[in-house]
Structure formats: C-alpha cells, structure tokens
Amino acid sequence: MALLNILRYPDPRLHKVAKPVTEFGARLEQLAADMAETMYEAPGVGLAATQVDVHERVVLVDVSETHDALTVFVNPEIVWASDEKQVYDEGCLSVPGIYDGVERPARVKVRAQDIKGQFFEVDCDGLLAVCIQHEMDHLNGKVFVEYLSPLKRNRIKNKLLKEERGMERDAQMRAAAGRR
Ligand code: K1U
Ligand code: ZN
C-alpha cells in the first residue's frame, strides 16, 4: 500500500469532473487500498479520488470511530434526497484547518457499485449523509468552500496560499541545509 498526496485548495485539479469507472480489477482495488490508507492516516472520515489527483468516480467513507466500517462507492448516484435539510460544520482534507457550516439534505439514498462492480444501495443520515454528499461534490469538481460567501472563500484561499508559500520556503531551506 502507499500514502497518496492530497491536493490542497485552491489547486485547479480539484475542479476537474471525474469520469465513470468502467474497468473493475486489480488497478481499482489498489487505488481503493491506497486511498483507505491515506484517509485513515490523515485522519479523515472520507476521501474522493479527485483529492489524490485520480479523476475517476471513486469515493471512500468510514464515519466509525473504530475504522471498521469502510465503504467504497464506485460511480455513486444520489437516487433520493429528503426535503429536510441539516447544517453541519464541514471540514476537508484538501482545505486543512477550515471548518464551516454547509446546508444539505438531511438524508439521502445512494446507489453505487462496489469494488467488484456489484450494485448496492445505502440509506444515509447524520454524518454519513453529510460525508457522502461532500465526497460526491469532489467528483463533480466542487469543494465545500464554494457553498460559503465569496468573502470567506477568498480569505480561506489567501490563508492556504500563504501557508503553501511557507511550506515551500521550509522545504527549500531543508534542502539547502542538506547540501551544506
Ligand atoms: O476531505 C474530505 O473530503 C474528507 C472530510 C470528510 C468530511 C468530514 C466532515 C464533514 C464533511 C466531510 C474529512 O474527513 S475532514 C476531517 C474530519 O472531519 C474528521 C477527521 C477525523 C475524525 C473525525 C472527523
Ligand atoms: Zn473534502
């Protein structure tokens, strides 16, 4: 297994629309295994392939505290959403350190394929409903900050760009120290 690099907002690759998976086999199984390792290590409760720069419709979710309820959703579709909405303070591994309220349907029914290509349906509520909708947005190139006001979004973008410049400077200084 391998840890994958998670793209950070505002990386433009986060806005690519992922393509449906058409081939089920060892390559997809390896991708799911690597994504699971990456998600648990982060740590996170979900991860979309888009976030690791793979633009195929694959999402992982595990909202358990014990890391024993991993579900892999391939080509997920929302086939029903409740009229009732809920607001949840969402986070994102691609937007580290930022949490803010997003309103979404409180319950959804999702139809997807598993890692072998078998179709299944799952009724989602609570954090599972929030998380699967958030991850499916990633597959459509949408990051949760796009639900926030332009003012908040710009502040987040500038904060993360500043952090990125700081990380690049640190890496350059470490490399220079290594050469001495
Ligand atoms: O980056 C992602 O898409 C994963 C994201 C999923 C998510 C969480 C909460 C609301 C909406 C979507 C995360 O996992 S952020 C990290 C996080 O919330 C968390 C991490 C460890 C334990 C519990 C929560
Ligand atoms: Zn996310």
Question: How would you describe this structure to a colleague?
Answer:
The strands form two sheets. Strands 1-2-3-6-7 form a five-stranded antiparallel sheet, with helices on both faces. The model has no long low-confidence stretch (mean pLDDT 97). It is globular. β6 (108-113) and β7 form a beta hairpin. It is 33% helix and 23% strand. By secondary structure, the chain is α+β, with helices and mostly antiparallel strands. The chain has three helices and seven strands, in the order αβββββββαα. Bound molecules: ligand K1U and zinc ion (ZN). Zinc ion binds next to α2.
Give short descriptive properties of this protein.
180 residues; alpha+beta; two-stranded antiparallel ribbon; binds ligand K1U; binds zinc ion
- Bin the helical content: 25-40%
Mind telling me the C-alpha Rg?
17 Å
What is the N-to-C order of secondary-structure elements (H for helix, E for strand)? HEEEEEEEHH
Residue fraction in strands: 15-25%
Question: Which residues form runs of ≥5 with pLDDT under 50?
Answer: none
Number of helical regions: 3
Mean pLDDT: 97
Which ligands accompany this protein?
ligand K1U, zinc ion
The end-to-end distance, rounded to whole angstroms, is 34 Å
Judged by helices, strands and strand pairing, the structural class is: alpha+beta
Give, in spatial order, the strands making up the sheet with the most strands: 1-2-3-6-7
Number of distinct beta strands: 7
The description of the largest β-sheet is:
5 strands, antiparallel
Outline:
globular
Task: Give the SSE map.
Elements: H1 26-41, E1 46-48, E2 58-61, E3 71-81, E4 85-90, E5 100-105, E6 108-113, E7 119-124, H2 126-139, H3 150-179
Antiparallel strand pairs: 1-2, 2-3, 3-6, 4-5, 6-7
The structure holds ligand K1U and zinc ion.
